[in-house]
Design a protein that fits this description.
By secondary structure, this protein is an alpha/beta fold. It folds into two domains: about 130 residues, Aspartate Aminotransferase, domain 1; about 240 residues, 3-Layer(aba) Sandwich (Aspartate Aminotransferase, domain 2). Helix content is about 40%, strand content about 15%. The strands form three sheets. Strands 2-8-7-6-5-3-4 form a seven-stranded mixed beta sheet, with helices on both faces. β5, α7 and β6 form a beta-alpha-beta unit. The structure holds pyridoxal-5'-phosphate. The site of pyridoxal-5'-phosphate (PLP) has 13 residues, from α4.
Protein backbone atom coordinates (compact mmCIF):
# COMPACT_ATOMS: atom_id res chain seq x y z
CA UNK A 1 0.00 0.00 0.00
CA UNK A 2 2.90 2.33 0.77
CA UNK A 3 4.39 1.60 -2.66
CA UNK A 4 1.08 2.33 -4.39
CA UNK A 5 0.79 5.60 -2.45
CA UNK A 6 4.35 6.55 -3.46
CA UNK A 7 3.37 5.93 -7.10
CA UNK A 8 0.70 8.59 -6.63
CA UNK A 9 -2.29 6.21 -6.26
CA UNK A 10 -4.95 7.32 -3.79
CA UNK A 11 -5.08 4.42 -1.35
CA UNK A 12 -6.88 3.74 1.91
CA UNK A 13 -5.13 1.34 4.21
CA UNK A 14 -7.41 -0.74 6.42
CA UNK A 15 -4.40 -2.92 7.16
CA UNK A 16 -2.75 -1.03 10.03
CA UNK A 17 -3.29 -2.05 13.67
CA UNK A 18 -3.31 1.52 14.84
CA UNK A 19 -5.91 4.09 15.84
CA UNK A 20 -6.05 7.56 14.24
CA UNK A 21 -6.79 9.11 17.67
CA UNK A 22 -4.21 11.28 19.43
CA UNK A 23 -2.38 10.45 22.63
CA UNK A 24 -4.35 12.34 25.35
CA UNK A 25 -2.98 15.89 25.83
CA UNK A 26 -2.09 15.48 29.50
CA UNK A 27 -0.03 12.42 28.60
CA UNK A 28 1.79 14.28 25.82
CA UNK A 29 2.54 17.16 28.19
CA UNK A 30 4.02 14.85 30.83
CA UNK A 31 6.46 13.46 28.22
CA UNK A 32 7.46 16.96 27.12
CA UNK A 33 7.96 18.04 30.74
CA UNK A 34 10.10 14.99 31.42
CA UNK A 35 12.42 15.99 28.57
CA UNK A 36 12.49 19.63 29.70
CA UNK A 37 13.37 18.48 33.22
CA UNK A 38 16.31 16.50 31.81
CA UNK A 39 14.73 13.16 32.62
CA UNK A 40 16.66 11.78 29.69
CA UNK A 41 19.06 9.20 31.12
CA UNK A 42 19.14 5.41 31.62
CA UNK A 43 16.61 4.08 34.12
CA UNK A 44 16.31 0.93 36.16
CA UNK A 45 15.96 -2.06 33.78
CA UNK A 46 12.41 -2.93 34.90
CA UNK A 47 11.23 0.69 34.73
CA UNK A 48 11.00 3.73 36.99
CA UNK A 49 9.17 3.38 40.31
CA UNK A 50 6.43 5.82 39.26
CA UNK A 51 5.59 3.66 36.24
CA UNK A 52 5.63 0.40 38.18
CA UNK A 53 3.37 1.97 40.84
CA UNK A 54 0.96 3.09 38.09
CA UNK A 55 0.98 -0.42 36.60
CA UNK A 56 0.31 -1.97 40.03
CA UNK A 57 -2.52 0.53 40.58
CA UNK A 58 -4.07 -0.28 37.20
CA UNK A 59 -3.87 -4.05 37.72
CA UNK A 60 -5.41 -3.77 41.17
CA UNK A 61 -8.22 -1.53 39.85
CA UNK A 62 -9.04 -3.60 36.77
CA UNK A 63 -8.17 -7.18 37.76
CA UNK A 64 -8.34 -7.07 41.56
CA UNK A 65 -4.84 -8.55 41.91
CA UNK A 66 -2.11 -6.80 43.92
CA UNK A 67 1.39 -7.08 42.49
CA UNK A 68 4.67 -6.12 44.20
CA UNK A 69 7.21 -4.09 42.22
CA UNK A 70 9.36 -7.23 41.84
CA UNK A 71 6.52 -8.83 39.88
CA UNK A 72 6.35 -6.03 37.29
CA UNK A 73 8.50 -5.10 34.31
CA UNK A 74 8.14 -2.40 31.65
CA UNK A 75 9.74 -2.67 28.21
CA UNK A 76 9.78 -1.05 24.78
CA UNK A 77 6.33 -2.29 23.79
CA UNK A 78 4.19 -5.34 24.49
CA UNK A 79 6.03 -7.04 21.65
CA UNK A 80 9.35 -6.83 23.49
CA UNK A 81 7.67 -8.12 26.65
CA UNK A 82 6.35 -11.19 24.80
CA UNK A 83 9.71 -11.75 23.15
CA UNK A 84 11.52 -11.54 26.52
CA UNK A 85 9.07 -13.92 28.18
CA UNK A 86 9.45 -16.53 25.45
CA UNK A 87 13.23 -16.24 25.10
CA UNK A 88 13.68 -16.40 28.86
CA UNK A 89 11.73 -19.64 29.24
CA UNK A 90 11.73 -21.75 26.07
CA UNK A 91 14.05 -24.57 25.07
CA UNK A 92 14.19 -26.46 21.77
CA UNK A 93 11.78 -29.25 22.82
CA UNK A 94 9.16 -26.88 24.21
CA UNK A 95 5.79 -26.17 22.64
CA UNK A 96 3.56 -23.11 22.84
CA UNK A 97 -0.15 -23.43 22.18
CA UNK A 98 -1.45 -20.58 20.03
CA UNK A 99 -5.14 -20.36 19.06
CA UNK A 100 -5.63 -19.31 15.41
CA UNK A 101 -6.43 -16.81 14.09
CA UNK A 102 -3.50 -15.30 15.99
CA UNK A 103 -1.53 -12.09 16.11
CA UNK A 104 1.15 -12.63 13.46
CA UNK A 105 4.13 -12.20 15.81
CA UNK A 106 3.35 -15.04 18.26
CA UNK A 107 4.44 -18.01 16.12
CA UNK A 108 7.51 -16.21 14.80
CA UNK A 109 8.63 -15.18 18.28
CA UNK A 110 8.26 -18.79 19.44
CA UNK A 111 10.21 -20.06 16.41
CA UNK A 112 12.98 -17.54 17.06
CA UNK A 113 13.59 -19.20 20.43
CA UNK A 114 13.90 -22.63 18.76
CA UNK A 115 10.65 -23.91 20.32
CA UNK A 116 7.57 -25.03 18.37
CA UNK A 117 4.28 -23.14 18.01
CA UNK A 118 1.29 -25.53 18.18
CA UNK A 119 -1.54 -23.88 16.29
CA UNK A 120 -5.13 -24.70 17.24
CA UNK A 121 -7.61 -23.52 14.61
CA UNK A 122 -10.66 -21.79 16.06
CA UNK A 123 -13.30 -21.53 13.37
CA UNK A 124 -15.93 -18.90 12.79
CA UNK A 125 -18.69 -21.23 14.06
CA UNK A 126 -16.99 -21.23 17.49
CA UNK A 127 -16.69 -17.42 17.43
CA UNK A 128 -12.97 -17.77 16.58
CA UNK A 129 -12.43 -18.77 20.23
CA UNK A 130 -10.49 -21.64 21.74
CA UNK A 131 -12.67 -24.30 23.38
CA UNK A 132 -11.67 -26.37 26.45
CA UNK A 133 -11.66 -29.57 24.35
CA UNK A 134 -9.58 -27.94 21.60
CA UNK A 135 -7.12 -26.84 24.26
CA UNK A 136 -6.95 -30.21 25.97
CA UNK A 137 -6.15 -31.94 22.68
CA UNK A 138 -3.22 -29.62 22.02
CA UNK A 139 -1.51 -30.10 25.41
CA UNK A 140 1.23 -32.57 26.19
CA UNK A 141 4.26 -32.86 28.47
CA UNK A 142 6.27 -30.53 26.21
CA UNK A 143 3.75 -27.69 26.43
CA UNK A 144 5.28 -24.71 28.22
CA UNK A 145 2.87 -21.87 27.45
CA UNK A 146 -0.68 -21.17 26.33
CA UNK A 147 -1.16 -17.76 24.69
CA UNK A 148 -4.55 -16.10 25.16
CA UNK A 149 -5.51 -12.79 23.55
CA UNK A 150 -8.84 -11.17 24.35
CA UNK A 151 -10.10 -8.87 22.89
CA UNK A 152 -8.47 -10.53 19.95
CA UNK A 153 -6.37 -9.42 17.05
CA UNK A 154 -7.37 -10.20 14.25
CA UNK A 155 -10.99 -11.21 15.00
CA UNK A 156 -12.15 -8.74 17.66
CA UNK A 157 -13.52 -11.71 19.62
CA UNK A 158 -13.95 -11.17 23.37
CA UNK A 159 -13.92 -14.12 25.78
CA UNK A 160 -16.51 -14.10 28.55
CA UNK A 161 -15.60 -14.89 32.15
CA UNK A 162 -17.16 -18.34 31.79
CA UNK A 163 -15.24 -19.10 28.61
CA UNK A 164 -11.94 -18.07 30.16
CA UNK A 165 -12.65 -19.96 33.37
CA UNK A 166 -13.40 -23.13 31.40
CA UNK A 167 -10.04 -22.84 29.61
CA UNK A 168 -8.12 -22.16 32.81
CA UNK A 169 -9.85 -25.11 34.49
CA UNK A 170 -8.25 -27.40 31.88
CA UNK A 171 -4.85 -26.14 33.01
CA UNK A 172 -5.54 -27.38 36.55
CA UNK A 173 -4.57 -30.81 35.19
CA UNK A 174 -1.30 -29.47 33.72
CA UNK A 175 0.43 -27.61 36.56
CA UNK A 176 3.63 -26.82 34.61
CA UNK A 177 1.99 -24.83 31.85
CA UNK A 178 2.18 -21.03 31.97
CA UNK A 179 -0.38 -18.64 30.48
CA UNK A 180 0.56 -15.55 28.55
CA UNK A 181 -2.50 -13.31 28.74
CA UNK A 182 -2.16 -10.62 26.08
CA UNK A 183 -4.56 -7.92 27.26
CA UNK A 184 -3.31 -5.20 24.90
CA UNK A 185 -6.87 -4.46 23.62
CA UNK A 186 -8.36 -4.42 27.13
CA UNK A 187 -11.16 -1.82 27.55
CA UNK A 188 -11.64 -1.59 23.77
CA UNK A 189 -14.95 -3.45 23.98
CA UNK A 190 -18.39 -2.41 22.80
CA UNK A 191 -21.01 -4.56 24.48
CA UNK A 192 -19.62 -6.99 27.02
CA UNK A 193 -16.58 -5.74 28.99
CA UNK A 194 -13.44 -7.80 28.57
CA UNK A 195 -11.96 -9.72 31.47
CA UNK A 196 -8.36 -10.56 32.15
CA UNK A 197 -7.54 -14.25 32.81
CA UNK A 198 -5.91 -13.40 36.15
CA UNK A 199 -9.10 -11.63 37.24
CA UNK A 200 -10.99 -14.87 36.50
CA UNK A 201 -8.60 -17.04 38.44
CA UNK A 202 -6.47 -14.95 40.86
CA UNK A 203 -5.33 -18.23 42.43
CA UNK A 204 -3.37 -18.86 39.20
CA UNK A 205 -1.44 -15.56 39.46
CA UNK A 206 1.81 -17.51 39.89
CA UNK A 207 1.25 -19.13 36.47
CA UNK A 208 -0.12 -16.19 34.48
CA UNK A 209 1.97 -13.50 32.85
CA UNK A 210 -0.38 -10.59 32.16
CA UNK A 211 0.91 -8.55 29.22
CA UNK A 212 -0.41 -5.12 28.39
CA UNK A 213 0.75 -1.74 27.14
CA UNK A 214 -0.31 1.79 26.34
CA UNK A 215 -0.16 1.42 22.53
CA UNK A 216 -3.78 0.65 21.72
CA UNK A 217 -5.89 2.05 24.56
CA UNK A 218 -4.11 5.40 24.79
CA UNK A 219 -3.20 5.64 21.08
CA UNK A 220 0.50 5.57 22.02
CA UNK A 221 1.97 3.07 19.54
CA UNK A 222 5.02 5.25 18.86
CA UNK A 223 5.93 5.75 22.52
CA UNK A 224 6.82 2.04 22.71
CA UNK A 225 5.80 1.15 26.25
CA UNK A 226 4.50 -2.28 27.22
CA UNK A 227 4.53 -4.04 30.54
CA UNK A 228 3.92 -7.34 32.27
CA UNK A 229 3.06 -8.64 35.72
CA UNK A 230 3.57 -12.19 36.85
CA UNK A 231 5.62 -14.56 38.98
CA UNK A 232 8.75 -12.98 40.42
CA UNK A 233 11.11 -15.69 39.05
CA UNK A 234 9.87 -15.02 35.52
CA UNK A 235 10.10 -11.24 35.81
CA UNK A 236 13.65 -11.70 37.10
CA UNK A 237 14.60 -13.85 34.09
CA UNK A 238 13.03 -11.32 31.70
CA UNK A 239 14.96 -8.56 33.49
CA UNK A 240 18.28 -10.36 32.99
CA UNK A 241 17.52 -10.67 29.30
CA UNK A 242 16.42 -7.06 28.93
CA UNK A 243 19.48 -5.78 30.77
CA UNK A 244 21.61 -7.22 27.95
CA UNK A 245 19.37 -6.07 25.09
CA UNK A 246 17.63 -2.69 25.38
CA UNK A 247 18.54 -1.94 29.04
CA UNK A 248 15.22 -0.17 29.61
CA UNK A 249 12.38 1.55 27.84
CA UNK A 250 12.94 5.26 27.01
CA UNK A 251 12.87 7.34 30.21
CA UNK A 252 10.49 10.11 29.08
CA UNK A 253 8.08 7.56 27.58
CA UNK A 254 7.98 5.72 30.88
CA UNK A 255 6.91 8.96 32.60
CA UNK A 256 4.15 9.53 30.05
CA UNK A 257 2.93 5.92 30.26
CA UNK A 258 2.77 6.18 34.06
CA UNK A 259 0.60 9.30 33.76
CA UNK A 260 -1.66 7.53 31.25
CA UNK A 261 -2.13 4.51 33.50
CA UNK A 262 -2.75 6.33 36.76
CA UNK A 263 -5.42 8.62 35.29
CA UNK A 264 -9.07 7.77 34.81
CA UNK A 265 -10.51 6.13 31.71
CA UNK A 266 -13.00 8.99 31.19
CA UNK A 267 -11.35 9.97 27.90
CA UNK A 268 -12.37 6.60 26.51
CA UNK A 269 -16.17 6.87 26.29
CA UNK A 270 -16.38 9.15 23.20
CA UNK A 271 -13.65 7.11 21.52
CA UNK A 272 -15.56 3.87 22.09
CA UNK A 273 -18.74 5.47 20.72
CA UNK A 274 -16.84 6.52 17.60
CA UNK A 275 -15.22 3.09 17.20
CA UNK A 276 -18.56 1.33 17.60
CA UNK A 277 -20.02 3.45 14.79
CA UNK A 278 -17.05 2.67 12.56
CA UNK A 279 -17.38 -1.03 13.34
CA UNK A 280 -21.09 -0.98 12.49
CA UNK A 281 -20.34 0.81 9.20
CA UNK A 282 -17.87 -1.89 8.19
CA UNK A 283 -20.12 -4.77 9.26
CA UNK A 284 -23.19 -3.36 7.44
CA UNK A 285 -21.19 -2.80 4.24
CA UNK A 286 -19.68 -6.29 4.33
CA UNK A 287 -23.04 -7.96 4.89
CA UNK A 288 -24.43 -6.15 1.84
CA UNK A 289 -21.70 -7.56 -0.45
CA UNK A 290 -22.52 -10.79 -2.26
CA UNK A 291 -19.81 -13.32 -1.37
CA UNK A 292 -18.56 -11.65 1.83
CA UNK A 293 -19.89 -12.14 5.36
CA UNK A 294 -18.91 -11.43 8.95
CA UNK A 295 -20.16 -11.43 12.51
CA UNK A 296 -20.18 -8.31 14.66
CA UNK A 297 -17.01 -8.40 16.78
CA UNK A 298 -17.24 -7.33 20.42
CA UNK A 299 -13.86 -5.64 20.78
CA UNK A 300 -10.53 -4.32 19.46
CA UNK A 301 -10.84 -2.49 16.12
CA UNK A 302 -10.86 -5.33 13.62
CA UNK A 303 -13.48 -7.16 11.59
CA UNK A 304 -12.55 -10.63 10.34
CA UNK A 305 -14.38 -11.07 7.07
CA UNK A 306 -15.31 -14.50 5.73
CA UNK A 307 -14.56 -14.48 2.00
CA UNK A 308 -15.24 -18.13 1.15
CA UNK A 309 -18.08 -16.93 -1.11
CA UNK A 310 -15.67 -15.11 -3.43
CA UNK A 311 -13.19 -17.93 -3.89
CA UNK A 312 -13.12 -19.12 -7.51
CA UNK A 313 -14.64 -15.92 -8.89
CA UNK A 314 -12.81 -14.14 -11.70
CA UNK A 315 -11.47 -10.61 -11.83
CA UNK A 316 -12.29 -8.38 -14.83
CA UNK A 317 -8.81 -9.33 -16.14
CA UNK A 318 -9.89 -13.01 -16.09
CA UNK A 319 -7.77 -14.18 -13.13
CA UNK A 320 -9.39 -16.65 -10.72
CA UNK A 321 -9.29 -15.70 -7.02
CA UNK A 322 -7.86 -18.80 -5.42
CA UNK A 323 -7.04 -17.50 -1.96
CA UNK A 324 -7.57 -14.62 0.42
CA UNK A 325 -4.08 -13.45 -0.60
CA UNK A 326 -5.33 -13.14 -4.21
CA UNK A 327 -8.39 -11.25 -3.01
CA UNK A 328 -6.34 -8.85 -0.86
CA UNK A 329 -4.02 -8.20 -3.83
CA UNK A 330 -7.05 -7.59 -6.08
CA UNK A 331 -8.58 -5.14 -3.59
CA UNK A 332 -5.27 -3.31 -3.30
CA UNK A 333 -4.83 -2.89 -7.04
CA UNK A 334 -8.49 -2.50 -8.11
CA UNK A 335 -10.12 -0.81 -5.12
CA UNK A 336 -7.03 0.96 -3.75
CA UNK A 337 -7.87 -0.49 -0.32
CA UNK A 338 -5.37 -2.31 1.87
CA UNK A 339 -6.58 -5.30 3.91
CA UNK A 340 -4.65 -8.20 5.44
CA UNK A 341 -5.41 -11.73 4.20
CA UNK A 342 -6.41 -14.25 6.87
CA UNK A 343 -3.57 -16.50 5.72
CA UNK A 344 -1.22 -14.20 7.67
CA UNK A 345 -3.18 -14.92 10.87
CA UNK A 346 -3.37 -18.68 10.41
CA UNK A 347 -7.02 -19.02 9.39
CA UNK A 348 -8.09 -18.63 5.74
CA UNK A 349 -9.89 -17.55 3.63
CA UNK A 350 -10.61 -14.35 5.55
CA UNK A 351 -9.69 -10.68 5.39
CA UNK A 352 -8.89 -8.50 8.39
CA UNK A 353 -10.25 -4.99 8.11
CA UNK A 354 -8.96 -2.54 10.72
CA UNK A 355 -11.22 0.44 11.43
CA UNK A 356 -8.61 2.71 12.98
CA UNK A 357 -9.23 5.34 10.27
CA UNK A 358 -11.80 8.17 10.06
CA UNK A 359 -15.41 7.34 9.23
CA UNK A 360 -15.03 9.24 5.98
CA UNK A 361 -12.10 7.05 4.90
CA UNK A 362 -13.89 3.90 6.03
CA UNK A 363 -17.03 4.82 4.08
CA UNK A 364 -14.94 5.48 0.99
CA UNK A 365 -12.99 2.24 1.41
CA UNK A 366 -16.15 0.19 1.85
CA UNK A 367 -17.67 1.80 -1.27
CA UNK A 368 -14.58 0.92 -3.27
CA UNK A 369 -14.53 -2.67 -1.93
CA UNK A 370 -18.22 -3.01 -2.83
CA UNK A 371 -17.57 -1.85 -6.39
CA UNK A 372 -14.52 -4.10 -6.83
CA UNK A 373 -16.43 -7.14 -5.55
CA UNK A 374 -19.38 -6.38 -7.87
CA UNK A 375 -16.95 -6.45 -10.80
CA UNK A 376 -16.05 -10.10 -10.08
CA UNK A 377 -17.79 -12.81 -12.08
C1 LIG B 1 -2.36 -8.83 19.99
C2 LIG B 1 -1.23 -7.86 20.09
N1 LIG B 1 -0.37 -8.01 21.10
C3 LIG B 1 0.68 -7.19 21.25
C4 LIG B 1 0.90 -6.15 20.37
C5 LIG B 1 2.12 -5.29 20.59
O1 LIG B 1 1.88 -3.96 20.77
P1 LIG B 1 3.04 -2.97 21.25
O2 LIG B 1 4.36 -3.62 20.99
O3 LIG B 1 2.84 -1.73 20.45
O4 LIG B 1 2.82 -2.76 22.72
C6 LIG B 1 0.02 -5.95 19.29
C7 LIG B 1 0.25 -4.88 18.29
O5 LIG B 1 -0.31 -4.83 17.23
C8 LIG B 1 -1.08 -6.82 19.16
O6 LIG B 1 -1.97 -6.68 18.16
Amino acid sequence: MRELAEQGRKVINLGEGELDFSTPDYVKRSGIEAIENDFTKYTEVTGIDELKSAIAFKLSRDSGVDYAKEQIIAASGGKQIIFNAMLATLDADDEVVIPAPYWVSYPDIVRLTGATPVIVECDRDQGFKLTPWGLREALNTNTRWLILNSPNNPTGAVYSRDELSALLDVLDDFPNILVLADDIYEHLTYEMPGISPVACRPDLAERILTVNGVSKLYAMTGWRIGYAAGPEWLIKAMTTLQSQSTTSAASMCQVAAGVALENSLDFLEPRLTELRERRDLVVAAIKAIDGLDCDTPGGAFYVYVDCRGLMGRRTPAGDALESDVDLAAYLASEAGVGVVPGTAFGLAPYLRLAYGLSREDIERAMGQITEACAALS
